[in-house]
Amino acid sequence: MQQPDNHDNIAKAQMLLATRRFLKLDEWLLSQMRGWQNQNEANNTYGLVMHPDTLFSKDESATQRLEILRDWAQQCPGSYHAHCLMGMFWHEQAWVIRRGNGPEHEVEDAQWLGAQLCCDYAVLSFLSAIACHPRPTHAFRHMMNLSGGFGEPYWLRALFAGQQPKPLHEQFNIQNSPVWEQGAAYLYAMGVAPATHWPQQLPAALQQTRRNDEDALDYWLRMAMSVRHSDVGSMESYLLFHSTFWGGSDEQQNEIIDGPLCAEFSEDERNQFRANALLDALGGEIADRDSPRAEQLQQRLTALLNQPLEPATRIALLNLAGTCIAYWQDDDRAGLQVYADLFAVSPQAMPGKFAALFISRAVLASEEQDGMPVLTSLLVRAINRADDALLTAFAAAAVQFGLYGLPCDTSLSSGLMDCAWSLMQQQKTTESVGKDLLVLAHDMAINDDIDATHFLMTEMARRGSALHTYELFFFYRNAWHQDVPESLHNDSNALDCVLSAARSGLVPAMFSAANALREGLGGEVDYQQAMHWYQRASEAGHPSADYWRASCALDLGSDAEKREAVEVSLPAILAQQNHPERFEAAYTLGMAWMQGVGTKKNKYIAWQLMNFVLELNPESEVARQAIIQLEGSLRARMSLWQDKRKVEGVDFTAPYRQSSAPQLPDASHEPQHVD
Fold it and tell me: Which of 644, 551, 631 has the alpha carbon at shortest distance from 592?
């Protein structure tokens, strides 16, 4: 937790940097560094201040930050802090390029190259910092972090091996290639050309210090610990690179914690490391119930919780443990007890979103009423904090009707709902929180709190949530998963809701609006509007809208629209092998040819299409019955033969089928009578 004077120290450092009083800033940082290095000042703020995100304003771009750091390094070439912060800046830029458009984004070769070019500059800066100070802990620590995340640059490995590193263009034949141009563009955008030539020797402090074949991660940790013994920050970073995310495991982390590398740390510090490893384990894939792994994790959790821990650590452990314990013990009560223990840590203790969803499900949907005090505590704290959109809206519905141990207060309910909506907009979580609120609404409905359920969805819809407006469409039609009282059934309201959600751009609502208009929900059938919304849904990417638009045209459209459906729309669907309605489109088209809707009747083409339907779905009874009708008598088979002559035996389904066409039944051996 930040100490009271941290804000003053941060403000002072920021002011000195912003006014470019670099000599004064260096002098002040060095004074702070001495106490931090010696670990004799409990409230020392050096570690907090020593980061670009602390020193710089959030409004300053990467280019502006780089310009200030380069100015500092030029004015004070011997400044350890200027070079170290420059290295940290370049390391962060490597991650910015690597992350690209987000965690789901596939990393391109040019991104890897751009990130590596940033790492080159980071390493050059850290080497300069190491040469400027006898105890460069931050430089060593960040060299370890960089090596763990991106690996050592080839030229640094060469220097440690006593070799002269080759320039970049000699080591790799990549310059002037598209990948090189795209990767280098990341640096050019900041006004910097890629570094291509390297130092010919290491700083004196690093020469002859690396053991043969010593791993980079181990080496840089050893160097950091040699200048700042029992450095918790360095060890935490080292252990992180042995976590599941980096290909390790919590078992691997615990082996390190219990081994000689951590022997100099206190038991409290080792317990913190163990807690971090356990958080890694509990936050990953949940171990199978009754497995040795599950038993081991429960034992480790129990042992740690019996030790003195920082409140934040204890809360984090209990937060992740709640749902795990409930699963492992197959007992919602056990999970609820974990969250009761969490609330007992401090009046401010709060679990995360998944805990809130579990508590709601366990107490309301699973009727574990003994857990009601846990739900009450959750909602009371949510009201006091009012910083979590999900819980704030949930609490608003509860106080509107005086549910779950809360008093009835309609005025407070309105304010909480406004606050929840504001948070959703500010945090850009309208869709994700909206979906979670629907889960809570279903839990409330299962608990027979249907009025509160209706209130929650209506208030969200009134404030602009298209998702809740769309959900009300099903609610008013009694098409919800839970029975809705007859007094709340209202087809007119349902139609208004689905049209409102459709106009808001919600694609499933566009499709449902078209279906509702087609069936005349709340009034008369509106064919033109139905076709409009089918088209909007199709253009927006709804996978089924094009089929239903074609079927609507066949049912209600003009002759021209029927012909378009038969000649264009349905065949286009048949041509798409992965279309979700391909089977239905084939059957509908077959019936159109069979009945002469939108085209001249031709039973031979209809027969081909029904066989095609069976090829797509051998279990289709309706297609089987249609085929029996088309070929089940001599007269029917004669009609098939006549219609086949009309189209000269052309296989209508040949462009769409994956196997040979079916053969027309032979009528030559049938009894000579007419049915």
Answer: 551
What pLDDT digit, counting tens, does each position of 425-456 carry? 999 999 999 999 999 999 999 999 999 999 99
Q: By CB neighbour count within 10 A (0-12 exposed, 13-18 middle, 19+ buried), where does 6 fall?
A: middle
Distance CA 24, CA 55 (A): 14
- Asked whether the beta carbons of 399 and 407 are under 8 A apart, the reply is yes
Q: What are phi and psi of 572, to 5 degrees?
A: -65, -35
C-beta separation of 534 from 561 below 8 A? no
Please name the helix (run of DSSP H) or strand (run of DSSP E) that holds residue 605, with its range, or none. Answer: helix 603-616
Which has the closest alpha carbon to 119: 168, 76, 162, 82? Answer: 168
Average pLDDT taken over every residue of the chain: 92
Entry pTM: 0.80
Neighbour count for residue 622 (Cβ, 10 Å): 13
What is the C-alpha separation between 614 and 607, in angstroms, rounded?
11
> d(Cα 401, Cα 455) in Å, to the nearest integer?
10
What is the C-alpha separation between 400 and 391, in angstroms, rounded?
14
Residue-wise pLDDT tens digits, 207-221: 999 998 899 999 999
Q: What is the CA radius of gyration of the chain?
A: 35
pLDDT at 665 > cutoff 80 = no
Could you tell me where the DSSP H helices lie in 228-331?
232-240, 250-257, 267-282, 292-305, 311-328
Which residue bears the tokens 């390190």? 256
Q: How far apart are CA 529 and CA 193, in angstroms?
A: 58
Place of tokens 């480790």: 300
Cβ(81)–Cβ(25) under 8 Å? yes
